[in-house]
Specification:
The chain is α+β, with helices and mostly antiparallel strands. The protein has a single domain, classed as Glutaredoxin, CATH 3.40.30.10. The protein has a four-stranded mixed β-sheet with strand order 2-1-3-4, with helices on both faces. It has a two-stranded antiparallel sheet with strand order 5-6. Strand 5 and strand 6 form a beta hairpin. Helix 6 crosses helix 7. It is globular, with a radius of gyration of 20 Å. The termini are far apart.
Length: 181
């Protein structure tokens, strides 16, 4: 009995030690969606010139869900669809000039969070979605992974870009599911 307990304990210690030295791998992200250089006024000027809305994604490098959202935005089909209607800009909390200031103004608690602004900088919609079944309760959906979160995200895109088609929304919905796999 003592041998079994000792062997189990040694095996347990070995498992803990091996877990401590495991290397976490980050999801590689192509460089399509890069941290935008420049200030919010520059991005708004571009949105105004191109007659598009400004889609700001607040994130930081070590955030796992942020990297998945970045992977989603870097998908060629997603990029093609969203770039028709939006200037999509990643705002890295630590690396973007004024990133912390912009996050404090527009971001929501947690990462990622996102907002869609009109050409003048007014908020159209953000990632704060209603909590199903709880009246007057909202939360930051960040990367929309659940059914209700995906529906809210697509609804947010439609409300800020009414010309987006149903087939484009369907593709975006599918790509949300693919990116997290």
């Amino acid at each position: 009995m003592f041998v079994k307990i000792t062997s189990s304990f040694i095996l347990f210690l070995f498992m803990i030690a091996s877990c401590r030295h495991a290397v976490k791998t980050l999801i590689p992200v192509p460089p399509v969606l890069q941290t935008q250089k420049g200030t919010l006024p520059n991005l708004l000027d571009r949105a105004k010139t191109e007659h598009k809305k400004l889609f700001l994604v607040f994130s930081f490098e070590k955030c796992g869900w942020c990297r998945i959202f970045e992977k989603y935005h870097n998908d060629p089909q997603v990029n093609e669809i969203l770039s028709k209607y939006f200037i999509v800009s990643k705002i890295d909390y630590y690396k973007t000039p004024d990133g912390q200031k912009l996050y404090m103004k527009y971001g929501l608690p947690g990462f990622p969070s996102w907002v869609i602004l009109d050409e003048t900088g007014n908020l159209i919609i953000n990632s704060e979605a209603p909590v199903p079944g709880i009246k007057d309760e909202k939360h930051n959906i960040g990367y929309p992974s659940g059914k209700n979160e995906m529906e809210y995200y697509i609804k947010a895109l439609k409300s800020s870009a009414p010309d987006i088609t149903s087939s484009e929304c369907h593709i975006l919905h599918e790509k949300l599911s693919e990116a997290r796999n």
